[in-house]
């Protein structure tokens, strides 16, 4: 087909004739395009899809039916769940007992932060434990709450299932989360009746508090027993030290070696002073009197008596005279050793006595308790399942799956 624009005579075309020729050429190109292969280009692809009988089937199976099934279950079958939330934390108990000893007992320092953090983790794990479920079953019908026939088949638990299988269902209805920095525990309980949800939350809180107090009570009683035993040992040590000191006094015949030694030193000092005075008098008397005169002999006798007394006292204090049972210096060394032992025993006994008193005070009180941050409240309306949200998610997923199936059909199985 020729697209040359000309007149039969070959004369130049006017403007109107040229426009008419161009329009006729475009019409010819359009007729040519309509006769091209339909399996090429976007028009061919759309025509291929319209003619493929599998695509509508995929649309029904992959998109329509799953979306209707999920939406129908959520809006017509799924049972309403009522959620009760409570938030609490563990804090050390404070009270008038803090005035006993503000530095050692009744303060936060007596209850380390590690203990509070550990008890927080214990509480969170205990709520999800089998022991918690078995304890609550003795107080209320836990299985019946979650296995009634009025509950939809996908949400209810099996009535006759063993406890091991029920423990797989328990975390779906009772959940806990802990904030790392504040230590606040969030408890979320979902049940199929608002009153049951509220009562179950209260029962879990009460049982968790009882368990934590039981564990801390065992630790407090163990500390009290340990300090009582150590107090008896310290008292026995102190008594033995005092008996040893008394026996040494009886054996040496001295009540207080240090005081006796001080008295002897004072006496020797006084006697030597007197001897010096007599020696001065003797020297002055010998200038005017003969050595054999009565006053001179008396002064010499007094000086001799003083020397004997001083020598006797010095032998009792530091000599090794075999006639003496114990030398005072030896007794003084032994008294000093026993006195140091006695002081150590008394100091140790005082510290143990204070620790025992602190343990007794802590054992007689509640060390920690639950501090409610958000009290549980009776739910009024159900908040689960989130029907609109999950229906939208199901629709979006079905749409994506349908698009993927069309692509696979076009490029893999065509």
UniProtKB/TrEMBL annotation:
Alphabetized GO MF terms: protein tyrosine kinase activity
Ranges in coiled-coil conformation: 198-251
The keyword Coiled coil appears for this protein: yes
Which residue ranges traverse the bilayer?
54-76, 388-408
Q: Does the keyword Transmembrane apply?
A: yes
InterPro entries (alphabetical): Bact_polysacc_biosynth/exp
Q: Which UniProt keywords apply?
A: Coiled coil, Membrane, Transmembrane, Transmembrane helix
Record PANTHER family? FERRIC ENTEROBACTIN TRANSPORT PROTEIN FEPE, TYROSINE-PROTEIN KINASE
**This protein's name:** Capsular polysaccharide transport system permease protein
